[in-house]
Amino acid sequence: MCPEADHSRMGMGPTDRECTIACINAHGALYVLYDGKDAYALSDQQTPEKFAGKKVAVTGTLDTKTKTIRVDSITAAK
Questions:
Q1: CA atoms of 33 and 40, how far apart (whole Å)
Q2: Which residues fall within 8 angstroms of residue 61, CB to CB, at 6 or more apart?
């Protein structure tokens, strides 16, 4: 459900942010960057919490085989 960017059906919180953080904590899920089509795991699993459920810009290197971004920085989208 997360790649569909619709957390309302999961019932883990009333907002995307709350649902995302609850899913990470309760299910051991990973923070990912979702571009509207694909989800990419983030190497940094600490910084993303403050951006959970928000649009961001991630700078880093993409490993296309594992669909993981080696994160250099995460900032709020403009």
A1: 5
A2: 69, 70, 72
Render pLDDT for 24-58 as a digit per residue (tens, 0 to 9): 998 888 999 988 889 999 999 999 999 998 999 99
For 19-75, give the secondary structure using H, E and C: HHHHHHHHHCCCCEEECCCCEEEECCCCHHHHHCCCCEEEEEEEECCCCEEEEEEEE
Sheet holding 32-34, edge to edge: 32-34, 39-42, 68-76, 56-63
Any long-range contacts for 13-19 (C-beta under 8 Å, 24+ apart)? 15/53, 16/52, 16/53, 17/52, 17/53, 17/54, 18/53, 19/53
Flag whether pLDDT at 1 surpasses 70: no
